[in-house]
Amino acid sequence: MNRTALLERLKNETFDLLVIGGGASGAGVALDAATRGLKVALVERLDFSEGTSSRSTKLIHGGVRYLEIAVKTLDRVQLNLVRDALHERSMLLKLAPHLTRPLWLLTPLYKLWEMPYYWTGLKLYDLLAGDARLQVSRYLGPQETLRRFPRVRSEGLVGAVAYQDGQFDDARYNLEVILTALEEGAVAVNYTEVTGLLKKNGKIAGAVVQDRLGGQEFEVGARVVVNATGPFSDSIRHLDDPAAPELVKASSGVHIVLGPTYSPPDTGLLIPHTEDGRVIFVLPWLGQTLVGTTDDPAEPTPHPRASEEEIAYILRQVEPYLGKVAREEVRAAWAGFRPLVAKAQAADTARLARDHLVQESASGLLTLTGGKWTTYRKMALDCVNYAVRRFGLQAGPSRTHERLLVGGWGFDPNGAQKLAQEYSLEPDIAQHLHRSYGSRAGQVAEIGQTFRLAPGYPYIESEVVYAARHELAQTPMDVLARRTRLAFLDTKAAEAALPEVAKLMAKELGWKAEERKAQENQTQERLAVAI
């Protein structure tokens, strides 16, 4: 995948649709539009999914908490969001079978009266899912609860309610939506920033874009421009209209990563009671344990970091259920911003609806915001449908409900063993490649550089080469944080792997010695304050 060639197309062609933002919603719009025969370009000022879309709780879910709020407040918006998300959950599991899986979640209970309350709620969750339901929710006795999740506190345990949701690798899923859009003819370029909007007779006609790697600024013409920049939506809206009122209220969510002993590999925990009335998840993820999240008002910044206060908050919430966890057990921590549709009367971001919005400005700029990861495909569908109707675009029907992502075509769920035998790979490496690249895993293995990037982790040198050649990776951080997930799992391991990653990328991308050193230094600075 050649970024230079894609950049030339961006500079020299005119498009039906120009999408600003390479997170889940922007990638979804690009793919939906491209599958309908529209000429599409996407620009992203950093790397694809560098912001919100790589920093989720890694759940594909309807939202049990949103259902509880909907029932308590008789809120139809929240209820419809849960129903839509449960349908979309089944879509995501189908479209990328290698990157997704169903996951059992237990809610441990220590008071008898809680059992019918939570059991009834989960039965309603099952009912709303309809034909898209996974396994039926169930009650587990104390003994079965401890068998399924041995770390949970046994004292006073009366049992648990168990239900299934989906789990995924968010950054790789986002990337594969982009790669699939490219296969469908779209242009998508990372590290390209919109610095201005073009107008003709007062109407949006494209954007001024700067290549942040080469420095050149140029114009991109388009019939429709879609602002899909998540928590940064208002900054693009203000390029269009400096007086535009606030549309998005950002919420910060922090996660931490612990070692694998804190969760079994196939079961997660939903902690229903925290000191501020929210919930915390404890989830197995890529061989480690993911814990989060927080939900607090925040001002978006390009590279947010988790504060020590937020890390301490999460550790306090898990202590009554898992016992005391020392700060030094935290291997990585990160923060992300949720884009919530602003409501003047809502001061608590935990209670703002995660529903999405397509808004058109007076000049014709479309802004797509709100929603959540699980509903990215429906958000994109609604946005493209609006653009087609409003601007008279000649488009066919959407195909994203059936268009498997790259790596999904021909994926064999039991193919890891065959991969290990064919390429003489250690079992954990073969399993990792199989689950991360799907039917393209053999292309990675064929590169033949099987030395591990970090002891105890299955990431190998071939992945760095593949990322630079075929996945538009431009910096070591792109590889360490998003093409692989090492920086999200273990900051110290990522720091140790950095010199080798930079060396391999320098060879692939033709960096001079000073460029390689600058890339190493920049990545080291980012890792030093987590990611």
TrEMBL record:
Keyword S-adenosyl-L-methionine included in the entry's annotation: no
Catalysis performed (reactions): a quinone + sn-glycerol 3-phosphate = dihydroxyacetone phosphate + a quinol
Cofactor or coenzyme needed: FAD
GO cellular component term, pick one: glycerol-3-phosphate dehydrogenase (FAD) complex
Location of the FAD dependent oxidoreductase domain: 16-377
GO function terms (MF aspect): glycerol-3-phosphate dehydrogenase (quinone) activity
Gene3D superfamilies: Alpha-glycerophosphate oxidase, cap domain, D-Amino Acid Oxidase, subunit A, domain 2, FAD/NAD(P)-binding domain
Enzyme class name: oxidoreductase
GO BP annotations, alphabetical order: glycerol-3-phosphate metabolic process
E.C. code: 1.1.5.3
Family per record: Belongs to the FAD-dependent glycerol-3-phosphate dehydrogenase family.
Protein name, entry field: Glycerol-3-phosphate dehydrogenase
